[in-house]
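Project standup — Tuesday

K.O.: blocked on the structure for the chain from last sprint. Re-posting the sequence here as requested.
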Amino acid sequence: MKIIDSFIDWLGVQKRYSPRTLVLYRGAVDEFYAHIFPEGEIEAGEETSVLTPLNIRGFIASGLESGLSARTMNLKLAALSSYCSYLMKQGLIPSNPVKKVFRPREEKKLPEFYTEKAMGNYFQSLTEEREGQEGEESFQVLRNRTILLLLYASGMRRAELCRLKITDFNPERSVIRVLGKGDKLREIPIPDAICQELLLYLKRINREFPGNTEGYFFLTDKGAPLYPAFVNNVVKKELEKVEGFTGRKSPHLLRHTLATHLLNRGADLNSIKEILGHSSLAATQIYTHNSFEQLKKAYLTAHPRAKNGGKNGN
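H.V.: unblocked you, prediction finished:
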């Protein structure tokens, strides 16, 4: 077994990283070796001997020059650092060379989110669709709407939605149990109105797919478990139907949107951290910047001195 294969196995078994993260980490390490060995031929022992600060700096510089962002290269550095730490544990290298490499400075970018008005437009469109509905709506329409409602109500990640099971929903307690990163379980409270939508959906899926033996909460048109690209397409199509949604339309933006709306309406950071499943408060604090921008906008709009530029007068 190659060193990188054993490293990826270790990440999956010991660290319990998600399949997507494993692909990203392996890709980063493979790209480093492709940079050092463009011919693709690696002699015995060279896998470890080329892991030097100089070579790693060259790899980062090459990525930046090709147009990759500082954030992307820092993610690759994190993967390489994890790889080197593993090699240290195996006694194959004496120290971690990534520790001697300065990370590219990233531009601070606030999380994108949808406005409360835009989300209100979406919910209003659902009401209008139902009022004009003749007969029973299709399973696809009901499922797609429920996917978007749940993403916004819970703030769960796309991968968490894909592996959600029917047994994870407890309507009596109005909570959903989510298996997050590192196989960490958390419970998310769900508003009563959304719970009713979920119950309505479950009645339908049980009728449409009585052979759903694995008990997945959401299924594709053919009865298979959801996959990331499917969820992306559902969210994009749902939001394109309504005015007010500009820019990207993705499941992750709904997660940002919930966090921002909760914070703007007075929820504390620790509560939002638990709902989102963040491992540290630092990851949640970025939403305070969005909240501050909202506060600043309201201040500049309402304050009489701000309106006239601080000049004396009426």
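K.O.: great, moving the ticket to review. Strands lie at 169-170, 175-179, 185-189. The first strand starts at residue 169 and ends at 170.
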